């Protein structure tokens, strides 16, 4: 019996010491596009890992005749299949992929926006309204076969966009969530922000019938404030959401204005209404999309993970852990010490955690996988430190 106890203890220690494993998913220039940005990732009901991004025709341009692209993995992200272009709107530009998998049906839903050709979100040329050639439109596509094939683009602009004031808008980017608890169990939420540029609100777009009909929630109070110079600014921008253990929903937004921390709010009614925007000083933010995620755990119902740059720049990619629904963040560990921009967390079929992230100044999108014990166990040395260009 003593030998068995020693063996078990040693086995746990070895497992806890395993460093993250890394694999390239998209590499700009090698995968058919000069630039590839804005990752999204989802694990299907059957266990296939789907990695999405924007394939861009021009370097360093958010609106660059983008297509929505996909790679699939059948081994938990260790290897990836061929690149697929799953949405193409001609000369218009597709942005902000945000994916979610319906637990009941297995259907994968992807939401994104189409910017009219020769318009940019920053140039002031986008118009308000629900019709016309100069507006941003909102689309969804769906897959019922683990991402092998996809439906045609469905325009859901009329049910997901305010006709007045709003010019630009963005789903996520990142992932949507499906609620598991309470009166709204089964509801799918797509985190959303709406402009004009520099005057964003954050809110949720949601469906209670698996994507047949979409509704628009209310913006969180306090998204826009007047600063010391008497100028109206937005505190928020790109946003993600997570369900807490009591069934409420927390949003976690990129900092646009205010102090260099993440911005949060909570909804008690399934993402329709929100508490006022607050700052989360435990999570530093240089102004970058980041990820918040609730992994399945039999032992810890209030477990949350967060990934983002823990720096004043887009570097030092760090995973944080909370055991109390985000009230405190008691553990953090560096996943990737170098260049680290947008990231998205997921849970793999074997229970390990995956993180799809941008690096090499956004020229490469990499997938990392690690057990939760890597976060909670003894400090380890990530193999990426000695293999920067080919993790």
Offer a quick outline of the entry.
Helix content is 6%, strand content 41%. The protein is built from three helices and 28 strands.
Rg for CA atoms: 20 Å
Number of domains: 1
Low-confidence stretches: 1-17, 378-391
- CATH architecture assignment: 6 Propeller
Q: In one word, what is the shape?
A: globular
Mean pLDDT: 91
Number of helices: 3
β-strand percent reads 35-45%
Largest sheet: 5 strands, mixed
Task: Report the span from N to C terminus.
Answer: 41 Å
Spatial order of strands in the largest sheet: 9-8-7-6-11
**How many beta-strand runs?**
28
Assign the CATH class. Mainly Beta
CATH fold field value: Neuraminidase
User: Structural class, from secondary structure content?
Assistant: mainly beta
**Share of helix among residues?**
under 10%
Question: What do these coordinates show?
Answer:
- This protein has helices spanning 2-16, 157-160, 372-376, and strands spanning 21-27, 35-43, 49-56, 67-73, 84-87, 93-101, 108-115, 137-143, 154-155, 169-171, 174-175, 177-178, 188-194, 201-207, 215-216, 224-226, 232-234, 239-243, 249-253, 261-267, 278-284, 291-293, 304-309, 315-322, 331-339, 343-347, 353-359, 364-370.
- The chain has 391 residues and is mainly beta.
- It has one domain (2-21, 98-382): Neuraminidase.
- The strands form 7 sheets. The protein has a 5-stranded mixed sheet with strand order 9-8-7-6-11. Strands 10, 12, 13, 14 and 15 form a 5-stranded antiparallel sheet that branches.
- Strand 2 (35-43) and strand 3 form a beta hairpin.
- Residues 1-17 and 378-391 have low confidence and may be disordered.
